């Protein structure tokens, strides 16, 4: 996943990868597993969030306002990609997740991976539930990007966040309600 940002806007989207890989020879098997594609657009000036999610082969479009997460800033620091970062924590009671984020004020945009934002700088790392899910920036590049690289997704059935969650829960129940784990970005 990549995070593009320009001015007051950012877009978090999948990396476009080349599906054609050179064969290594031999009689091996190649299995390709793809995660559902999602894109998250945020406009901090208008406080708008547009998220395109894929579920069961269908695209959905969720339009909402930006949520200000109640982060708790700490005094703990560490370096990520040569940026001085500060630790922030957040307890998401709805998703039952303890979240640790590391952000840098050297990049003055309150953005980060997936749904995470609203810290006083760019989030370079997020850890959910002590390693259950981790995002870590592997490279930061400052280069000129086109306006179309940071535009809101527009394809999919318009749906409210709560209705989308209900659809996912109904599918989980239909599949036996067992230990299925759905990772929501």
Automatic annotation (TrEMBL):
Q: Species lineage, top-down?
A: Eukaryota, Metazoa, Ecdysozoa, Arthropoda, Crustacea
* InterPro entries listed in its UniProt record: GLPGLI
| Name this protein carries in UniProt | GLPGLI family protein
């Amino acid at each position: 996943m990549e995070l593009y940002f320009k001015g007051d806007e950012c877009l978090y989207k999948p990396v476009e990868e080349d599906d054609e890989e050179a064969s290594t020879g031999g009689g091996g098997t190649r299995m390709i597993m793809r995660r559902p594609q999602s894109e998250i657009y945020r406009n901090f000036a208008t406080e708008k969030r547009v998220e395109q999610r894929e579920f069961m082969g269908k695209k959905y479009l969720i339009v909402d306002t930006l949520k200000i997460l109640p982060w708790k800033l700490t005094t703990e620091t560490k370096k990520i990609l040569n940026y001085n970062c500060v630790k922030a924590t957040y307890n998401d009671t709805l998703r039952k997740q303890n979240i640790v984020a590391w952000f840098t004020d050297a990049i003055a945009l309150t953005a980060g991976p997936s749904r995470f934002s609203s810290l006083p700088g760019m989030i370079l790392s997020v850890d959910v539930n002590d390693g259950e899910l981790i995002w870590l920036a592997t490279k930061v590049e400052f280069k000129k990007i086109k306006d179309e690289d940071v535009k809101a997704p527009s394809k999919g059935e318009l749906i409210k966040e709560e209705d989308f969650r209900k659809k996912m829960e109904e599918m989980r129940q239909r599949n036996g309600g067992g230990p299925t784990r759905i990772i929501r970005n």
